[in-house]
Structure formats: structure tokens, C-alpha cells
């Protein structure tokens, strides 16, 4: 019985080993015969020699690294093994392949931003994807490095996996090469982004790479910057000369305000022409200069648009209000406040559009979309903590623009002083005091504490002149004098509101108050000063005995007492 069990055990073990071997063979065959993992071709670059062993074409990262290393060493003949030259006749692949490799290396050096960490290092270019919150891997046989726009047409630089046709039972040896379409587009890309005719006259000794750039580029960059500064200054001066063309104030101001944005646009345009026609810098330099030029041009155009809108709105408001804010009507003050709010809205929209446009030019959204979504909460917290004062003031400014608790030109009593609201900006309010000083108040602080707005409904103000007089003063005489003086004053309105009353009385004296109506706070202050002066002069000249005085009581002593 024990012998029988041993034979059964050996049989089961043999069957398990055979099944395991068959399973492993089937996995290997299926992996090799999977048509989605590569493209089968009759032969890979038969016009070239056998690829040297130092070329690693096993993955996208290894292929691109081999090509870049060979190009930097100047070995373009060997670098041609990384191109799919199947579209060329076999006898032309050697000579033409070296030329195409050199041209592609120049385009990659000048235009391609290589993210080595992001390049797949696996043979099947395996990438991780997330579907329904579950992560999985996807194998590829095509990998896009970059796309370029040339005259409205899109040209791609792509790596593709190829393998020569083999027998059914023979394992394939797939390799990654620059695709056939990429090779077909090399000449177009080289004409668009390759070196310009001027660079052919640069000595080879100046083309030695020093750091990130070639030696001649270190010399050319300061010269290019100097030319841009010169173009900008020249443009600014030419634009400012337009002030002398017309005597119109609006036209003169338009030329002044247009000088800076037009100089920025002119400098960016000159740089684009200079770098696109005369010289073509390498990749590290382009990585800095190209975004800078785009931002310079967009900034100049945005600033020009903002200044044009600002000049238009300022012209409209000045036609309605003039150059003073002292006595505008309620509707005019509301109109001016609305214009300031419109300015702020246009500023936010323009700046936002400029930022989005710049980001879209460099595919920032495509590269950073998931990162931005993942870090949105962190960024919100950081911005909320770092910019809470600024953001709070901006929100408060929008609150003023919508609710209008205070308007441009309103007369207010703020922290014990009389002020006129002169301007409402994003983060602060500019107040003009009665003595023509400027008080700058953060918007959030301004709205956090009470203030008196004398212009909410009606600017009329009841003034009060207060005199402290002797109890023997005759109020009837004072009332007649005040009534005559107030009616004679041209700035006193509503004479039926004139009033004289004793508001306080004691053994030491009495307080007499005189009331009159003025059309606005500024006029009320002047009227109050004039009427007070009139009454004081009247008492001083006509009845000096009415002034308040100290009284001393002397008690008589009894006879014989000391």
C-alpha cells in the first residue's frame, strides 16, 4: 500500500510540474505574440550596419538618452540607428540617416523640454492610470514626446516600438525608435526651429558649450537684451512725441499713457523677429526667453487695454463731474462710484484673461491639471492665511461697489473729522480732509467701524452756533440779530428753519444756540464761521456786558467780629 501511495504522489507531482511549465510557456508566447505591443516590419534600417552594443533601445527613456548622448558626442551616424528610416531607399539610409539625426538633435536641443523622470523606463512603456478609483497599468507602443505648431500645422515627435517579423515559434526583439512620421517631419521642424543663416558664420570654437549654453549664446544674450531695451526706449519716446500733435487734453494724456505698454509690445515683437529670423538660441535659453517674451507681449497688450479703458472711463466721469468732488449731486456720486467698480471688474477680468492665456500658451493646464486639483485645498489654505488681509480688503471693496454705503464725492464724518471720499480702490479708500490732506484707510478697517455719511439722501446740514453769555443777555435782541445776519448770508437756505434758543442755564451763565440750514457740509462749515463771527462782533461792540463772567459772593461780617 505504501508503494502505491508513493507512485500516486510521484504522478501528481509530475502532472503539476508539466502544468506549470505549460502555463509559463503560454504566458511567454502570448506576451511575445501580443500584436498591441509593437509594430511588425520586414526589417529595421537594413541600409545601416549592425547597431553597436552601446545603443540601448529597450524603452522610451533609454532610446532618447542614447540618442541625446550620441548627438552631444557628434556621432550622428550611430544616432541614425534610433530613427525609423524605412521610408528611405536602402542605399540612402546611411548618408541621409546621419543628416536627419543631426537635424533632429538640433530641434530637440532647441525646442524639446525633456522630463526624464516622466519618460517610461519599462520596455512596454507601462503607465499607471486610475479608473473608478482603482489604479491599473496600460502598456503602449507609441509615446508622444512633444507637438509643435508650424504655420498652423501640428507636427509631433513620437517614439514607437518596432519588431522585425519572425517565425511563429521565434521570439521577437522589439526596439523603440523615432517613428516614421517623426522622421518625415524632421526637415519641416528643422527649417522652423533649427539654426539660422547667421549661425553658419559663427566659429566652431564659439560653439563650445559652457554650462547650459554655448559660448556665443552667453555673448549674444546681453546684446539681445540691450537691443530690446533700446527698442523699448525709442518706442516710448516716439509715442510721447504724439503729445505735441494735438492740444486736446485727452489726446495728450492718451499718448502719455500709451508709451509704456506700446514700448513693451514693440520690444517683444523685435525680440521675436530677432530670434526667429537672425538667430535661434538653444533649448535652455529658449526655455527662459520664450515665456518671458510671451509674458512681456501679453503684459503690454493688457496694460494698453486697461489704460485705454481707464482713459475712456475717466473722460466720461470728468464730463459728468468736472475736476472737483465738492458739490456733485447724488446721482453723479453714484455714477462715479459705479465707474470705479467697473474699473475694478475690468482689471480683474483683464488680469485673469492674461494669466490664463499665458498658461495656455505653455500647456500648463495640461501638465499640471491633476496636480492643481490635488493641491487645491493646500493652496487655498496657504493663500487664505498669507493673503487674508488683502483678500478681505478686496471683498470689502466689492461690497462697497455693490451696496454703496459710501460713494465717490460723499461728505462723511470719520473719526472726528470731516472728509470727502475721493477714491475707492481695491484695498483702500482715499479720503480728502477739510484742510486738503489725504487720509488712506484700508477698506476692511473703514467698514468695520461706524461713520457718519452726510450725503446718503440729502446733503443739507443744520449748523449750530453756540455762545455762552451772561444771564442778563436779552435773547430777543440776539434772535433778531441772528435772523437778520442769516437772511443776509447768500449760502443760508430755508429761512423758515432759523431758530434761536436757550439750551442751558446756570448761576454762572446761559448757553444760547442759533440754528440755520446750509446746502452741504462744506458750505455749512463756512456759514457757521461767518455767523459766529457776526454774533461775536455784535455782542463785543453793542453789548459787552453780556459776556459771561465769574461772580464772587462776599458775605458781610457781624459788627465787632474779626
Automatic annotation (TrEMBL):
Gene3D superfamilies: 1.10.287.1260, 2.30.30.60
Mechanosensitive ion channel MscS domain mapped to chain residues: 391-455
Signal peptide bounds: 1-31
Pfam entry (one): MS_channel_2nd
Transmembrane segments: 215-239, 260-281, 287-309, 341-362, 368-391
InterPro entries the UniProt entry points to: LSM_dom_sf, MscS_beta-dom_sf, MscS_channel_2nd
Protein name as catalogued: Mechanosensitive ion channel MscS domain-containing protein
Species for this entry: Marivita lacus
Source taxonomy: Bacteria, Pseudomonadati, Pseudomonadota, Alphaproteobacteria, Rhodobacterales
Amino acid at each position: 500500500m505504501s508503494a502505491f501511495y508513493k507512485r500516486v504522489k510521484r504522478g501528481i507531482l509530475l502532472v503539476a510540474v508539466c502544468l506549470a511549465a505549460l502555463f509559463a510557456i503560454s504566458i511567454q508566447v502570448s506576451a511575445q505574440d501580443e500584436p498591441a505591443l509593437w509594430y511588425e516590419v520586414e526589417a529595421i534600417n537594413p541600409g545601416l550596419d549592425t547597431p553597436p552594443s552601446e545603443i540601448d533601445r529597450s524603452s522610451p527613456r533609454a532610446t532618447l538618452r542614447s540618442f541625446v548622448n550620441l548627438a552631444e558626442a557628434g556621432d550622428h551616424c550611430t544616432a541614425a540607428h534610433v530613427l525609423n528610416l524605412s521610408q528611405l531607399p536602402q542605399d540612402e539610409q546611411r548618408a541621409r540617416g546621419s543628416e536627419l539625426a543631426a537635424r533632429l538633435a538640433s530641434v530637440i536641443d532647441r525646442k524639446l523640454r525633456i522630463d526624464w523622470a516622466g519618460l517610461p523606463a519599462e520596455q512596454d512603456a507601462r503607465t499607471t492610470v486610475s479608473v473608478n478609483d482603482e489604479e491599473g497599468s496600460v502598456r503602449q507602443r507609441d509615446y508622444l514626446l512633444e507637438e509643435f505648431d508650424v504655420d498652423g500645422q501640428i507636427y509631433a515627435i513620437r517614439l514607437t516600438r518596432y519588431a522585425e517579423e519572425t517565425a511563429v515559434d521565434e521570439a521577437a526583439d522589439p526596439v523603440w525608435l523615432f517613428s516614421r512620421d517623426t522622421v518625415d517631419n524632421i526637415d519641416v521642424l528643422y527649417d522652423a526651429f533649427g539654426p539660422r543663416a547667421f549661425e553658419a558664420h559663427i566659429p566652431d570654437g564659439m560653439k563650445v558649450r559652457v554650462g547650459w549654453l554655448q559660448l556665443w549664446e552667453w555673448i549674444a544674450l546681453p546684446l539681445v537684451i540691450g537691443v530690446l531695451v533700446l527698442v523699448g526706449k525709442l518706442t516710448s519716446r516716439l509715442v510721447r512725441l504724439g503729445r505735441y500733435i494735438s492740444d486736446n487734453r485727452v489726446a495728450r494724456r492718451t499718448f502719455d499713457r500709451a508709451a509704456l505698454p506700446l514700448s513693451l509690445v514693440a520690444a517683444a515683437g523685435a525680440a521675436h523677429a530677432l530670434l526667429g529670423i537672425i538667430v535661434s538660441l538653444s533649448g535652455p535659453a529658449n526655455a527662459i526667453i520664450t515665456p518671458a517674451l510671451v509674458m512681456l507681449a501679453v503684459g503690454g497688450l493688457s496694460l494698453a487695454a486697461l489704460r485705454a479703458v481707464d482713459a475712456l472711463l475717466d473722460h466720461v466721469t470728468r464730463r459728468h463731474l468736472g475736476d472737483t468732488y465738492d458739490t456733485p449731486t447724488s446721482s453723479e456720486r453714484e455714477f462715479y462710484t459705479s465707474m470705479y467698480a467697473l474699473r475694478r471688474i475690468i482689471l480683474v477680468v483683464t488680469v485673469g484673461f492674461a494669466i490664463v492665456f499665458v498658461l495656455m500658451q505653455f500647456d500648463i493646464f495640461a501638465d499640471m491639471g491633476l496636480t492643481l486639483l490635488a493641491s487645491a485645498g493646500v493652496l487655498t489654505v496657504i493663500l487664505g492665511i498669507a493673503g487674508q488681509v488683502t483678500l478681505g480688503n478686496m471683498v470689502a471693496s466689492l461690497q462697497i461697489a455693490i451696496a454703496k454705503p459710501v460713494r465717490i464725492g460723499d461728505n462723511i464724518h470719520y473719526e472726528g473729522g470731516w472728509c470727502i471720499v475721493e477714491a475707492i480702490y481695491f484695498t483702500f479708500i482715499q479720503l480728502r480732509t477739510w484742510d486738503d490732506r489725504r487720509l488712506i484707510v484700508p477698506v476692511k478697517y473703514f467698514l468695520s467701524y461706524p461713520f457718519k455719511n452726510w450725503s446718503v439722501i440729502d446733503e443739507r446740514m443744520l449748523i449750530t452756533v453756540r455762545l455762552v453769555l451772561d444771564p442778563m443777555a436779552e435773547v430777543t435782541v440776539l434772535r433778531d440779530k441772528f435772523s437778520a445776519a442769516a437772511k443776509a448770508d447768500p449760502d443760508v437756505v430755508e429761512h423758515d428753519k432759523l431758530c434761536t434758543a436757550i439750551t442751558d442755564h446756570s448761576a454762572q451763565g446761559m448757553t444760547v444756540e442759533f440754528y440755520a440750514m446750509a446746502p452741504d457740509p462744506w458750505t455749512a462749515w463756512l456759514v457757521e464761521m461767518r455767523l459766529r463771527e457776526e454774533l461775536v462782533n455784535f455782542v463785543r461792540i453793542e453789548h459787552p456786558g453780556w459776556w459771561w463772567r465769574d461772580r464772587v459772593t462776599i458775605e458781610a461780617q457781624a459788627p465787632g467780629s474779626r
